[in-house]
Amino acid sequence: HRFNELHRQFIDRFAEAGNDPERLARILSRTFLTTSARNQLPATLLSIEERGLNGVLTLSLTGSHTIQSIITLKSVRNMGLTVGCDLYAIIKSSDVTIVTTPPKGEEAMNTLKGTISRIESQDETDEIAFALDLFTELIALMNPKDTAQLSEGMNAYALISPKHIIIGL
């Protein structure tokens, strides 16, 4: 049973490459890493803007969504990040907030439009599944007092600080 699960994971890694042999080579050269973060989104690096000690990375997700992540320029160099490279945007579910209206004038916040696909309540926490498109879903963990106005099927917005998006290869 464990072998079948590992085999499926291995095949899934191949599928990420599509028909691009160079991309497959990069994927196979990666070390497998498992994290506790619920949101691990495949992305492509669109740009790197230097801002003091930090780099502001603009990432393209599946569909038409883009987000920004802020990491140190030292990390950009150590990871060998270049425009066009494939990577993962890793976001803890507690760092995602779902709201019904987008914030006004909050340019520093990633604001993603989508649909609430599921709300699960347990104890003092609500888990919200938030569909960006057919292929990408975010998970948000929120306090029930902040989710009273949310319902399944509703259009809403996911808010994520660029400082809370970890980059993985």
Give me some keywords for this one.
single chain, 169 residues, alpha+beta, OB fold (Dihydrolipoamide Acetyltransferase, E2P), 5-stranded antiparallel beta sheet, 10 strands, globular
Description:
Among the domains are: 1-32; 93-159, RNA polymerase II/Efflux pump adaptor protein, barrel-sandwich hybrid domain (OB fold (Dihydrolipoamide Acetyltransferase, E2P)), CATH 2.40.50.100. A hairpin with a 5-residue loop joins strand 7 and strand 8 (137-142). 18% of the residues lie in helices and 42% in strands. The chain contains three helices and ten strands.
What's the arrangement of secondary structure elements?
Elements: H1 2-15, H2 21-29, E1 39-51, E2 54-60, E3 66-72, H3 73-79, E4 86-91, E5 97-99, E6 110-122, E7 125-131, E8 137-142, E9 155-160, E10 166-168
Antiparallel strand pairs: 1-2, 1-4, 2-3, 4-10, 5-9, 6-7, 6-9, 7-8
